[in-house]
């Protein structure tokens, strides 16, 4: 799969994406700011694209190194374990720490930015459970 591992973990949608007006909603200046075609076409910083694809590039490098050291079976086995871990998830409105994925990647002993400032209990917007489940099931 070429989409990257971070994008596959996003099964929930934010509450701001679904509104009472639906597709005909106007642009919300307070939440999204002013629209600009330039901002949509070009990244705001030269390192933005690199940072977005960091985990994918790191996984590719790790798989290539693992293949050179142990053979083709090792990265294939690890990719199968990644897929198995991604399939087992919580309901979309419940927070998941993805501990199994952190263990497979070796990030379980590291403390990063997202460990401290990504606490869902401190989130300003909590999604509506029924709407999020209907969206995941394709009913909405």
UniProtKB/TrEMBL annotation:
Pfam family membership, one: UMP1
Superkingdom assignment: Eukaryota
User: What keywords sit in the KW lines?
Assistant: Chaperone
A biological process (GO) of this protein is: proteasome assembly
Q: List GO terms (cellular component aspect).
A: cytoplasm; nucleus
**Family affiliation:** Belongs to the POMP/UMP1 family.
Give the protein name, as stated in the record: POMP protein
Source organism: Vireo altiloquus (Black-whiskered vireo)
Q: Which gene encodes it?
A: Pomp
């Amino acid at each position: 799969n070429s989409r990257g591992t971070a994008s596959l973990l996003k099964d929930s949608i934010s509450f701001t994406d679904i509104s009472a007006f639906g597709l005909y909603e106007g642009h919300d200046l307070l939440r999204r700011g002013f629209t600009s075609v330039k901002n949509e076409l070009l990244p705001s910083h030269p390192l933005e694209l690199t940072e977005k694809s960091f985990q994918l590039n790191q996984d590719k490098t790790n798989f290539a190194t693992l293949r050179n050291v142990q053979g083709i079976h090792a990265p294939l086995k690890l990719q199968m374990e990644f897929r198995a871990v991604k399939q087992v998830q919580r309901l979309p409105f419940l927070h998941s720490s993805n501990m199994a994925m952190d263990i497979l990647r070796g990030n379980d002993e590291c403390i990063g930015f997202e460990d401290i400032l990504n606490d869902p209990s401190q989130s300003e917007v909590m999604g509506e459970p029924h709407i999020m489940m209907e969206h995941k099931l394709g009913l909405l």
